[in-house]
């Protein structure tokens, strides 16, 4: 069944070539106990290794069951070793970190025998060698004889046809030797056993056939077998180690060196900890900023102004980077020239034409999205106050007398209710209601009070003195009277009591005192009196047909002064243009500026989308651009955060590279330590791939440990970090580890450590099994 045909094998070390086998011709019977005798160095072990497929012959042929092995590939040899051969070594070669039963099962594990069948068979062979009760012990808890019995059990477990034993009793005392030899003799009853020994007595006592070796040649054979033709009858089951087996094997191995594994995993986890902390901090700060922004910036309006100075995005970016110390490439040129450019204003100005269509578009915004819309107009309402039976003009500017934002869809004071507390009285209800707005210290500019005729004596005024206070708005036709070419006030400016009392006068009553709510960091209505947009609309409607407006429309001079307009003399209030005078008089129902207050920070995006919809398909001049101040602020803060995060992660990544190298070294050391195990596994039929798998499994475990450890440590560190941040900034729970980031980092750690172990694992796989077995 087994034939060696002119087998030659030599080893070359340096320039010296040692012939180990010099043309061996041997035929073996299917069932015999063969002893190979010979002096040390005569080639016995080499011959056994060649027969077992552990070593390759240089020339000749090894014929198994009539099949030549000349064309065998690695996998064929692996399968052959696993299926047909059982090795017994002088030094037992048990895997020390596996218990007895696992050692015995290893060969079957490699050939994919099911767990149940494996256990049954292992128990059976252990019983046969008399070690059943020791099956859960580790090899180092057994005596030499017992260890050799385990090795025999392992060799028998896969039911091989051939048992190869290399000086199996070489390390044992004579009594134990006898027991082992009896056992082998017993096995030889139905197998081919080839045993190497240098003890002629053992050979004579036990063997059926004695072959003597000398200098790599057969010098005698007590029972030679002539050549017999056997028809090829050969089929072998391929071996394969599952990743789970590799994991189990490595987990067992790692358990024997817990301390080192822990330290390795911990060192590797430092990079992960760093990145996890940075991510949680930036994540947390992003969240806090978003929260802060939605709190403070949500009451920032989106502004649409008739002559919108569009904030040029590129210019803004340039300013920002300049603020942060970055310089433009073409800044500070060396050329001794000056570059004329387009005027900046022209580049960034866009005139918004607020058509009726656009105004309607605004009014049709989903009422849920906005807390209020305010229209800024140049309209100057004619106001009179009454003091001691005398009425005089209130000189209110646009700051001390403004309209509060109106709400869409019925609930008219939503904006005020969301942003202002009522200190006294109530929110305004109708056109005749005005409110006094004070700052967060209940303060109000005293000149405003004086202007509006509110008298007071001490340094504070009780609420009840203000609530119910009344002044009046006078319509244009009553307020102005024509005087030749221009108009003047209808009455004696020092006492306009008749005007005050006229039937068209609109009484305005202070119904409430409002103060910004505590969470409103930046109140947007100026301190002073606020009226409803309804009042403005009413007055504008009336003004449209007032004499003074009609006259102004027809005249090319200012009807308030009688002076001609001088277009070159535009002052800041613009009142020297005809358009401006008309606006002031209320002839113009298009507001100068529209401010839209989003109901929430998130509603803002929907509003912007809605506003953008208007511009779709419009020509550049017809487009209406808006200014989203809050958006500009958000953009800036987000960008800075991202930049900082990237830089910090880059730093932490260095420690990941360090741990990559470290894991490589540790794995390499492990490969050196487990060399013998590699040899044993190979002798049991493990493929090179399986060996790679064993070490990949080891790094997999380390990577998983370090990843999980890193995340756990980072999570724990977040507690003190948060308490420090809280003490410094009063912000609670800033650092927050995103579970997705955590999972990604564990995967990263796994990937990197496995990568680090790749080269050592490949080195392990390439190890020559014979040399590996000889390793100390
Ligand atoms: P034996 O088992 O009979 O003592 P071996 O088969 O181990 O002898 O060795 C046969 C010869 O081959 C010896 O001279 C030994 O030095 C040589 N030899 C065996 N293995 C190697 C090797 N890996 N490299 C170099 N020489 C070797
Ligand atoms: Mg030897």
Automatic annotation (TrEMBL):
Protein name: Sulfate ABC transporter ATP-binding protein
An example molecular function term from Gene Ontology annotations: ATP hydrolysis activity
UniProt entry tagged with the keyword Nucleotide-binding: yes
Subcellular location: Cell inner membrane
Entry membrane topology: Multi-pass membrane protein
SUPFAM superfamilies: P-loop containing nucleoside triphosphate hydrolases
Any one of the GO CC terms: membrane protein complex
Keyword Transcription regulation: no
Positions of the ABC transporter domain: 2-240
Source organism of this protein record: Clostridium thermosuccinogenes
Residue stretches spanning the membrane: 262-281, 646-672, 693-719, 739-759
């Amino acid at each position: 069944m087994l034939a060696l045909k002119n087998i030659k094998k030599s080893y070359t070390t340096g320039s010296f070539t040692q012939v180990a086998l010099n043309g061996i011709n041997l035929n073996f019977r299917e069932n015999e106990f063969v002893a190979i005798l010979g002096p040390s160095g005569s080639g016995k072990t080499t011959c056994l290794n060649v027969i077992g497929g552990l070593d390759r012959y240089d020339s000749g042929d090894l014929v198994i069951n009539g099949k030549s092995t000349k064309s065998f590939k690695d996998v064929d040899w692996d399968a052959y070793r696993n299926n047909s051969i059982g090795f017994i070594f002088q030094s037992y070669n048990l895997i020390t970190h596996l218990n007895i039963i696992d050692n015995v099962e290893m060969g079957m594990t490699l050939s994919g025998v099911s767990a149940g069948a494996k256990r049954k068979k292992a128990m059976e062979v252990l019983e046969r060698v008399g070690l059943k009760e020791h099956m859960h012990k580790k090899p180092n808890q057994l005596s030499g004889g017992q260890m050799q019995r385990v090795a025999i059990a392992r060799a028998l477990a896969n039911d091989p046809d051939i048992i190869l034993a290399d000086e199996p009793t070489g390390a044992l005392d004579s009594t134990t030797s006898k027991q082992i030899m009896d056992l082998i003799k017993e096995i030889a009853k139905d197998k081919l056993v080839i045993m190497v020994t240098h003890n002629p007595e053992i050979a004579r006592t036990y063997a059926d056939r004695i072959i003597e070796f000398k200098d790599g040649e057969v010098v005698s054979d007590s029972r030679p077998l002539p050549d017999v033709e056997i028809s090829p009858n050969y089929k072998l089951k391929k071996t394969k180690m599952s990743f789970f087996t590799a994991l189990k094997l490595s987990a067992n191995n790692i358990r024997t060196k817990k301390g080192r594994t822990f330290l390795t995993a911990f060192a590797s986890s430092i990079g992960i900890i760093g990145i996890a902390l940075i991510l949680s901090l930036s994540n947390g700060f992003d969240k806090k900023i978003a929260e802060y922004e939605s709190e403070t910036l949500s009451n920032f309006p989106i502004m649409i102004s008739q002559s919108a100075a569009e904030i040029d995005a590129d210019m803004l970016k340039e300013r920002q980077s300049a603020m942060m110390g970055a310089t433009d490439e073409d800044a500070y040129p060396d050329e001794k020239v000056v570059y004329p450019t387009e005027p900046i204003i022209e580049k960034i100005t866009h005139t918004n034409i607020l058509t009726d269509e656009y105004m309607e578009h605004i009014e049709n915004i989903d009422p849920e999205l906005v807390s209020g819309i305010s229209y800024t107009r140049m309209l100057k309402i004619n106001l009179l106050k009454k003091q001691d039976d005398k009425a005089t003009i209130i000189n209110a500017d646009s700051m001390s007398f403004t309209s509060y934002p109106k709400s869409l869809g019925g609930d008219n004071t939503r904006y005020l209710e969301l942003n202002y507390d009522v200190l006294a009285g109530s929110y305004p209800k109708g056109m005749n209601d005005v409110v006094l707005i004070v700052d967060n210290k209940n303060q109000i500019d005293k000149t405003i009070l004086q202007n509006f005729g509110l008298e007071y004596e001490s340094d504070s005024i009780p609420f009840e003195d203000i609530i119910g206070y009344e002044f009046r708005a006078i319509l244009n036709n009553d307020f102005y009277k024509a005087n030749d070419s221009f108009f003047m006030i209808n009455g004696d400016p020092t006492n306009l009591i008749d005007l005050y009392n006229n039937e068209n006068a609109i009484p305005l009553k202070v119904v409430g005192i409002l103060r910004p709510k505590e969470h409103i960091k930046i109140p947007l209505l100026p301190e002073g009196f606020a009226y409803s947009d309804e009042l403005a609309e009413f007055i504008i409607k009336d003004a449209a047909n007032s004499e003074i407006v009609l006259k102004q429309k027809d005249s090319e001079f200012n009807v308030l002064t009688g002076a001609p307009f001088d277009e070159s003399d535009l002052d800041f209030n613009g009142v020297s243009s005809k358009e401006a005078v008309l606006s002031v008089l209320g002839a113009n129902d298009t507001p100068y500026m529209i401010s839209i207050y989003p109901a929430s920070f998130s509603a803002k995006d929907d509003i912007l989308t809605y506003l953008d919809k208007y511009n779709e398909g419009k020509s550049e001049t017809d487009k209406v651009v808006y200014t989203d101040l809050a958006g500009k602020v958000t953009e800036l803060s987000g960008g800075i955060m991202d930049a900082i995060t990237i830089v910090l992660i880059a730093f932490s990544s260095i420690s990941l590279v360090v741990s990559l190298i470290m894991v490589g070294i540790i794995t390499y050391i492990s490969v050196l330590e487990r060399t013998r195990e590699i040899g044993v596994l190979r002798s049991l039929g493990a493929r090179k791939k399986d060996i790679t798998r064993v070490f990949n499994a080891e790094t997999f475990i380390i990577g998983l440990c370090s990843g999980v450890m890193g995340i756990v440590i980072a999570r724990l560190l977040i507690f003190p970090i948060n308490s420090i941040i809280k003490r410094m900034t009063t912000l609670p729970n800033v650092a927050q580890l995103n579970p997705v980031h955590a999972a990604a980092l564990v995967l990263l750690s796994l990937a990197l450590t496995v990568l680090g172990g790749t080269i050592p694992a490949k080195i392990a796989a390439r190890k020559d099994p014979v040399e590996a077995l000889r390793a100390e």
